[in-house]
Structure prediction request, 358 residues.
Amino acid sequence: MSKKKQDLIEHAEQLFYNHGFHAVGLKRIIKEANVALMTLYNHFDSKEALILDVLKKRGEQYFSLLKSSVENSKSSPILSLAEAHIDFIRKHNKNGCMFLRAKEEFSFDEDHEIFQYVNEHKRSLLAFFEEIGFNHSEALQLVLLFEGATALSETLTMDEVEMTFMHSIKSMKLQMRVE
Amino acid sequence: MSKKKQDLIEHAEQLFYNHGFHAVGLKRIIKEANVALMTLYNHFDSKEALILDVLKKRGEQYFSLLKSSVENSKSSPILSLAEAHIDFIRKHNKNGCMFLRAKEEFSFDEDHEIFQYVNEHKRSLLAFFEEIGFNHSEALQLVLLFEGATALSETLTMDEVEMTFMHSIKSMKLQMRVE
DNA sequence: CTAAAAATATAATGACCGTTCTATACATAA
DNA sequence: TTATGTATAGAACGGTCATTATATTTTTAG
Prediction:
């Protein structure tokens, strides 16, 4: 991937996440990324295509974080997953779930690529929890706690979030053991 | 309150919630509310003042729903609260927490009235749980579950959300009994 | 060195944005 | 009826938006 293209995606991700998709103009993105406008249009068909690429890159990063955390897990996988999720929130500054926010801002059209990608991303998270051994009910509970922690981080300190999240995770009654 | 003003607030609430604050223009709001543009500016100083009034009205409705649910509670207050929250989500179409969304779209300025109101609203929810008898840790857990349910409703069916949410609520170990 | 590819700056396009101005119509109450 | 406040339509304002066009420069590869 071109360095310019990567710069665009990374700066766009920060701007979109911090201010919203409709609120950030292309001019601001190319300015912060030090790239000409025509270079952006050379790499992306449209603003929405850029948004989609930003989300896909972020989605891949999130899942690779979860996967590596469970692979390198020394103690229980569920605690490693929870810590990985908290780490992800800590790294990105308390502005909620970017995927849900994208879905919300583009919910006028349910056939929209962005709308569909977010649904797919969320379905993948649920499926991932089931793949590594949790039953359906447990996976749903986990997703609820993960989403809750992300939302909570928008109004509370990360220490409060981590404490509450971990406490909730530990108090889950798990029917099956992983591995 | 003037009927026109009320129409504006109600239609603005729906449009903002369904499409986002930056995505919805004043023209669209006055069209759906059947109101002239100058009438809007007669009742609200600016678009952001309208947004603030929309949030305040919604916030009051939410809290009055929670309060009446716990007052008229026949069984346990926590289950009544949970059901009231689910009812609120059901009534508003699966687009997440409007307060968090407002904070996200106006997070460029932490001194912004909208930003501050949302913080206040969320602090009030936590305080409310403590006022009716839950300790701090329990109140935090409740908020996490409430936020989780709201977020979950954006990608799952309400039946799945209700089942998972209620299951999580019931499995909470409560240190103290209310009343 | 040269040819192809990528990135640049600038400007035009047409549409929409929030806000303000002007001037007219309608309502209610004294 | 007259006066006052409210609602109306329509246009203008300056600005930003995403996108496209044109033309020039820089970088890369053979």
